[in-house]
Amino acid sequence: MSGGEPSETADLLEGTVLEEQLDQCDAIMGDIMEERLDPTDEENIYTRIDFQYGRTKDKTLEVLSDRFEAEGLNTALKTLISGIIECQGFHAKLERNGQRDDSLETVTRWFKLYAAVVLEKQPDIPFEFVLTQFKKYRDVVIVHPDGIPTATDKPEASLLGFLTLSWTAMEEILRLWQEILSKSDVELIGRESALDGNTPKHGFIHNLSDTRGFVTAYPEGQEGDDTHFDLDSAEYFPKEGDVVELEDEESAPHHDARTANSLRKYDP
To answer: For the whole model, what pTM was predicted?
Structure first.
């Protein structure tokens, strides 16, 4: 960047709703770091997450001045959430065939599943769709809009809205993480054992078709087979991303997946 670009980008942010949103996230991260950060330990995971958080903010500012930097923001957001997942110790659940399945959609849903059961509540992440559909929204609305944005000294409205919604979702993820960190080790171990249990089994819906859906279950992780369910077996009207409880049965030997007897939305 040239010497004048940082201040120019800051000028674009000043007085916007996005600036207020970032300030709110800063306050949450400040509280977390004050309680958890050990500045003398360079290997401390909280140090790395603090760095990832700052990098995500930097990428956000870069997008304000160049919408084509949105790919870098996608990577920064997923790296930040992946760092939180690693901190909570269930990052191995995202591994498949020796590789980490860590798309922004995947890490968002995995964190939401963990937070739901550990906190014993159904998380409500405002504008969660912006994170789970980030690439699609980025490509259609941000990088390739219908019209050419008008040159102006203020951020273009759809771009600013996109960034604000992304950080509104991130604020709730940070709040949930802050709440998780307030639990004692004994409480966390107890709730994590519930996540690993099979009666009932917990997971999230990652795909729906006309007649059936597919659940990624916590005990099996990304490496395991999907659990299928017929829509008729669901006790509510399901949607992708829902955290659910299910009772399943082993499928016949010639099948490569499990089939759920019943599925219900997680409701502790």
So the answer is: 0.89
